[in-house]
Predict the 3D structure of the following.
Amino acid sequence: MNVVSGWVDRLKCPSCDGSVSQEEATVVCRTCDITYPVRAGVVQMLSEEQGALAETFNAQYDALRLKEGWASDIPGFYDALPYRDLTGRNTDAWRQRVRSYLLVRRWLENTVGTGRISILDYGAGNGWLSRLLADRYDLAAMDINEGNHGLSAIPESSRLYTVIQSSLESIPLHSDCCDAVVANASLHYTSAPEGALEEIHRILKPGGVVVIMDSPTYSSTQGVRQAMKRSHSYFCQMGFPDLANHYAGLTDALFKANDLFLYRPLRKDFSTLELLKKRFREAMGHPESARFPVWTGRKL
Ligand SMILES: [Zn+2]
């Protein structure tokens, strides 16, 4: 498919906010003339400075994910996701991802309908969710990682969706241009989730919807602080201390501030059993465990 397809009119220049045109293997800003490359079907909407930062971050992130088994060089690994984890190392977690996907898909069909609405997959990672939703919806997958374990993990020839490399903090799309945004296990990788939600709000059409799924969420700021400490020592232990700067904890309070969206919980955690186990452990004096809720929000 045409790499940028229907999304070219929605794209805006990260440097000057101007509209862009697609010219063969590039996207060009009509106002400031800056050229953004399209490589292997990925339109790279980054300023020079963002590009340099992205390169360092992506190399570290890929190396960590390969160690953890969330990324893999096994042939066919990305094609098999989310239903089969060919590394065999995160099988249960992928099962939970499938459940989250099915829940969100059903909600989208019941709430926003089965028409070909536009959806931005915000922090799409390797693009597995975009691939599944693109059978019915007009999808764009956006992530900072454009490499072989990021947006290029699914080959260009099998993608039925648009692919945009961008930082999560500023979305290179015009205001009021999108029907829905799905933030799948990604909101906690933004440096400031409140700011990220403002950006998501900006690009949604009036009445548009956001789905925030599978991000670790805590009830208290103390819970978040403890989690960030644990993450920091984990990243250090794995040899990538810088990655800790890209991790933010979410609190329930984020979804109680109904100024941008009217939020509704679709699910409190991966399962009721999971939730009960966590409550029991906490009652026994353990620190607060993350919940993995699914929140939906309608743009106000
Ligand atoms: Zn420009």
Summary: The chain has one domain: 42-299. The longest strand covers residues 204-213. The helical segments are 48-68, 77-80, 91-111, 128-133, 193-203, 221-238, 272-283. The mean pLDDT is 93.
